[in-house]
Specification:
heterodimer; A: about 190 residues; alpha+beta; two-stranded antiparallel ribbon; B: alpha/beta; Immunoglobulin-like; four-stranded mixed beta sheet; four-stranded antiparallel beta sheet; 8 strands
């Protein structure tokens, strides 16, 4: 074996080890992203004569992970919620000032380590109707299917959180509570 | 001898690789800077700016210079709350997330709340590493405020609220008209019952007209496809609308016939059935948008 052959053999195994080390190093240091694949957001409104649910599947979201922390942003157009009645939906857009503030945004930061858990508690910052409200430690269930993770739970929102005057029907106002059911399926990018 | 350079090379490459991200991460702090202005955009000198690390509670303070510029260096990555105020001008607060090695420039506008979030409604603070609405692929048309549309919606709601209230009020004389009709027609010869019925019918007609006026005046919102109970509500108007025109005309003929001592005859006989169908359609329209079946 010539000195060149020895050198080449040594180099190839060393290059392999170096590549593995580089990969490990990269895995810990790099950023990665989660993308919202499917979503169902449902708000519930209670009125003495009505129980109404408004549903949207138009949310988009992204989670950017950096140094063990993932910042998530989920946004959904206010006008995308469908309660089954055009008049009610237009009224909802009006009372929530949906033309002035057309997007609902939800932000949260989670440690990357929780991606393996079956339940998480998240602190949420929600911007809606020109107001920002914070919700502490909202519990969510996490189910894993392949690479996808589905997060489901209910955000205990109220109209007062966003300074929205309760709309009324037949002079009776709706209840202050507007729980928002969330089901979000995330996929790594 | 031949293996020596490769070993050195391997060691050098390994060290370089293992330390490369550490070298990158060495700059674990960032600089926050910007300008303090009033609501007209005029730079404000000598204004105290406080920057609080949300996680640790540590507060860094600085003062804007003669040109209104402020600068806080060596901020560890994390979430920060900024606050500033100047007597007679106002105050400003903002939340930012600093990423290691990523300087952030933020204008603090006194006299307002949180500074505008980029060019987008509800958008994130500019310059952070968090995802933004642009990252999500929403178009500008979807995320931009439309004050004109909001004004249109406000006007629509205001007029439809009056429409709703007037509709409810109209049901009172309408029901009373139906009730008094039993004493106004048939073999009953009492003119006072008939007059009361006519008066209530007239009030109903007037109130109905006002109710309809506010429904017509409410602006239509372009691009909305009607669905749900509102369609039934509007369909009923095609029945009670003409009915509310026909009922008083037929009633006037019947009233005249009765006053002449005649038995109600001819087309005037349709007054009661038309009135009942009209009242029924009106009630159904009201219930359709009030009660979920």
């Amino acid at each position: 074996m010539t000195s060149y052959e020895v050198m080449a053999k040594g180099m190839s195994s060393q290059a392999l080890i170096a590549f593995v080390l580089w990969s490990v190093s990269f895995a810990f240091a790099s950023d990665h992203t989660w993308v919202l694949k499917e979503s169902t957001l449902t708000y519930h409104v209670s009125h003495p004569l009505h129980q109404t649910d408004g549903v949207s599947h138009a949310a988009r979201g992204k989670g950017m992970c950096h140094e063990g922390q993932c910042d998530f942003l989920i946004a959904v157009p206010v006008k995308s919620f469908d309660s089954g009645d055009t008049n009610r939906d237009l009224h909802m857009i009006q009372v929530t000032r949906g033309a002035e503030f057309p997007m609902v945004t939800v932000r949260t930061r989670l440690p990357e380590a929780v991606s393996g858990s079956s339940s998480i508690k998240a602190d949420l910052e929600i911007q809606f109707a020109g107001q920002t409200a914070h919700f502490q430690q909202v519990p969510f269930e996490v189910t894993t299917l392949g690479n996808n993770k589905t997060i489901s739970g209910t955000i205990p929102a109220t109209l007062a959180d966003f300074k929205i005057d309760p709309p009324s029907l037949l002079t009776m106002p709706v209840k202050n509570d507007i729980p928002i059911k969330v089901e979000l399926t995330w996929s790594p990018q | 001898m031949g293996a020596m350079p490769s070993k050195i090379l391997f060691a050098a490459v390994t060290i370089l690789i293992l330390t490369s991200h550490l070298l990158c991460a060495q700059d674990s702090t960032a600089t926050l800077s910007g300008t303090v202005t009033d609501s007209l955009g005029k730079a404000l000198p000598n204004v105290q700016v406080s920057v609080k690390n949300v996680a640790t509670g540590h507060i860094s303070e600085t003062q804007s210079d003669a040109d209104g510029h402020y600068r806080v260096e060596n901020l560890p990555a994390g979430e920060y709350e900024l606050s500033t105020s100047a007597e007679g001008v106002g105050s400003a607060t903002a939340k930012v997330v600093m990423a290691a090695g990523a300087p952030l420039i933020l204008t603090l506008t006194l006299g307002q709340g949180q500074p505008p979030a980029g060019s987008l409604q509800n958008g994130p603070a500019p310059g952070t590493t968090q995802p933004s609405l642009e990252d999500l692929g929403f178009s500008k048309a979807e995320t931009q405020a439309n004050a004109q549309q909001q004004a249109l919606l406000d006007r629509r709601t205001r007029l439809l609220k009056i429409h709703q209230r007037m509709g409810l009020i109209t049901t009172i004389p309408m029901i009373a008209s139906v009730v008094t009709s039993f004493g106004a027609g048939g073999k009953n010869e009492s003119s006072s019952s008939r007059d009361l019925h006519v008066a209530l019918g007239a009030v109903t007609g007037d109130l109905y007209g006002i109710t309809a006026f506010y429904a017509f005046r409410a602006p239509r919102i372009k691009g909305t496809q009607k669905k749900g109970p509102i369609r039934f509500h509007e369909a009923m108007a095609w029945i009670h609308g003409p009915g509310m025109i026909m009922t008083p005309i037929l009633g006037a003929i019947a009233f005249s016939q009765k006053n002449n001592g005649e038995k109600v005859h001819g087309i005037a006989q349709a007054h009661a059935p038309v009135a009942i169908v009209t009242a029924g359609a009106f009630g159904a329209a009201l219930l359709a948008v009030s009660v979920k079946f």
